Amino acid sequence: MTQQTYRGLRAVAIRRLPDHVDQEVLVQGWLHNKRSKGKLHFLQIRDGTGLVQAVVAKGKIDEAVFEAAGELTQESAVRVIGKCVADERAPSGVEIQPSFLECVSKSEEFPITKKEHGTAFLMEHRHLWLRSRKQAATMRIRNEAIHAIRDFFYQRDFYCMDSPMFTPNACEGTSTLFQVKYFEDQAFLTQSGQLYGEASAMALGKIYVFGPTFRAEKSKTRRHLTEFWMVEPECAYYDLDDVMALAEDFVANIVTRVLERCRPELDVLERDVSKLEPSTSTPYPRVSYAEAEKILEGDETFVSGDDFGAPHETKIGERFDRPVMIHRYPAAIKAFYMKHDPENSDLALCVDMIAPEGYGEMIGGSQREDDYETLIGRVREHELSEADFRWYLDLRRFGSVPHGGFGLGLERTVAWLTGAEHLRECIPFPRMLYKIYP
Ligand code: 4AD
Ligand code: MG
């Protein structure tokens, strides 16, 4: 057991309290809210795992402690020992009747109160905002998604292969690179671990890369961060169909897990779970770029042959009750490493998965070009440095095989799962254009 003890009792996480009904428990947390009525103080205590009410009753506790409880300020750190009793009316199902209460540290006036605060203010106080119920619920769902991701791959014999953050290679175009000084040289912060993922797949078969990725996104949108987490499976001997089958299985698995294990959090966020339920089953719809274009017929903001913008993705996504996979985009608007369709060389063997309800692109993936001569031609066409890509080109010289994979943006996925308006609430400390504090 890793829980610490205090006064001979082990601390119980608030979410575990229903397992301790009629027992003496120790809860350690912070005061979320307080209400007093006559001889009772109702303390809402949070510990990060949940919220519970402690009812401090005059006469049941030391008189001085009763008085002190009335003086507690929001976010004061408190320890409570008391009986855990079942209470059907309480959202947690239990309440605590304290026999002991200790103020570990009294909080100064907390800047975030029940009243409405503007986003700029909340973002300035992100380090404190994380304590609020909705933010904490979002973080717990993010945590569940991360575990679902790792378990999914573990159970399917994928190996986790971490890729470097410093790299000489532009994987996703040169316009969003963060340049850093690397001793006497310059390097970039990674935009994607894919290229290293490909090398790893040739070594271990089925792998995934999972870590932070960086893009100097110069536009301010709800869907872009400059630092975001991406999980990227890569598999030897996979073609585009295999990639799509893996992608839908993967996403369905994450949604299912979050629905199973995060109901209290989804309730706090008032997420309409009926909107998520269809996504627990596969197959997901597949449409080609050409078919998707037809959905946009008459939309004057869309130029044929271009990438879809956010409003276009929303319009396409709205046609379906679960994520839709759009495949075979024009190769001209896609990355250099994608294999072209042997049936129409103007098209790339790629797929984007668009989330429902306007949450936009969650996944980008493809089958990779596996022919050495073709790939070196692409590196040249895209004016990338051959020297920097020599190692990557080597993969096509030493036992090249068809292969493919995709990248799923963690924050985009969490935004969809939680119903968040903006990606900034889906990562503990968001990094955006001109935003690096706290
Ligand atoms: O479509 P993208 O650019 O694909 C790649 O990077 C491939 N190399 C992945 C691969 O095949 N291994 O990005 C993948 C996903 C997007 O679908 C989106 O979910 C997310 O990463 N993403 C962002 N999320 C937040 N902020 C940004 N600026 C993002 N850019 C991409
Ligand atoms: Mg993309």
Give a brief rundown of this model:
The protein has twelve helices and 20 strands.
What does this structure look like?
- The structure is a single chain.
- The protein has 438 residues and is an alpha+beta fold.
- The chain folds into 2 domains: 5-105, OB fold (Dihydrolipoamide Acetyltransferase, E2P); 123-426, 2-Layer Sandwich (BirA Bifunctional Protein, domain 2), CATH 3.30.930.
- Helix content is 27%, strand content 28%.
- Strands 8-12-13-20-19-18-15-14 form an 8-stranded mixed sheet. It has a 5-stranded mixed beta barrel with strand order 3-4-5-7-6.
- A hairpin with a 2-residue loop joins strand 10 (179-182) and strand 11.
- Helix 4 crosses helix 6 and helix 4 crosses helix 12 (410-418).
- The longest helix has 23 residues, at 133-155.
- Bound molecules: 4-amino-1,4-dioxobutan-2-aminium adenosine-5'-monophosphate and magnesium ion.
- Magnesium ion binds at residues 352, 361, 364.
